[in-house]
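Researcher: Please translate sequence to structure tokens.
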Amino acid sequence: MALHSRHHHYRHRLRGFGYFKRLGPGLVTGAADDDPSGIGTYSQVGAAFRFGLLWTALFTFPLAAAVQETAARLGLATGRGLASLIRERFPGWVLYAAVALVTMANVFNIGADLGSMAAAVRLLVPLPFLVLILALTATMVSLEVAVPYHRYARVLRWLTVSLVAYIAVLFVVKTDWASVARHTFIPTFSFDRIDIAALIAIFGTTISPYLFFWQASEEVEEELEHNELPPVDAGHVSVMRTDVIGGMGSAVIVMFAIMVAAGATLGRQGITTVQTADQAALALKPIAGSLASLLFTLGILGTGALAVPVLAGSTAYALSEALGWHEGLSRTFRQARGFYGVLIAATVVGVALNFSGINPVRALYFAAILNALAAPPLILLMLILSNSERVMGRWRGGRLSNVLLGLSLVAMAGLPLAYLVAG
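Model: Translation complete:
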């Protein structure tokens, strides 16, 4: 397989003035990891366990970064998306099973995120839920379909600024920082189903399959947009890793901030059930004040506006690559009708879930469960692909990458098994 990818045009170098402007898909991917369903999960864990599971931030960061670096390296080195590589190297049933799992999880995630966004906006603007969710959906779909890729990617990059809201919350809530430090660096855990279920939720939200497909495909998008750039070299791979590590680092920092804020406010007051992101924002208001609630709400809106297009886009990439269709946000609707059709359909079905009678909380957790179940086989496939000399050439996975991917695989596969055998 020819190694013909091009380097992301924003990150030809990352030093000097304008660092943020030059960050690429890694930053967007990391920010999309903290979508409204993730915010709901982290808030629930913080409320229920207070600071008891803060150590998971340190544990998940290197694993999530290694998985996303592998996905990015696969796309950068081969110029192919993840589904396309799976189609070429594995039997058809493996491909379709992987795509089916990620599609189902994505659709439920889209529905949960859009519902949380509309509910959060209602905390600020008392408009009917139906009007808000349809307006939000139409706006995001229109941006993806109508706006040229290089402009759309710029919009996504700046939406990541909304993550600062969750850091800002920590400055307006009273926090026992000695307790935070103790629980961050000294892990505590009991092997019962409640604790294991919380870990499954954290891992399923932080290491999400839709991010694998999006990361690899976005590396390819930049090749389609900028064919004049030189072939990949060691410098390109180095700054790609900086981009990915920076993006996943920001995701884990926000995860940590949400868990601390929820533990310091909701958990301290005995509020242990917070099942959606907008509930977390509303619950913070009487405890931490209007400013904390406002910041939390604005963060939900910004991260949702970032994550929903990533979820829909990763679904479209996966299905289009699996079926051999023309795909990519750099193409027009006329050039990639199937790709955009899947993108629109995934978003519409996600919206419909909010009116189908399905409990949105159940949809949220079902999506997290599907993510957790889909991740291990996909990580295994990525591990095999990244170590294939035929696929990767000189860019095969190194020892550190393989160890971290192996740990991710063991953790993601082992937690559901531990839950089944736990008392």
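Researcher: Any highlights?
Model: Residues 40 and 279 are 8 Å apart (CA to CA).
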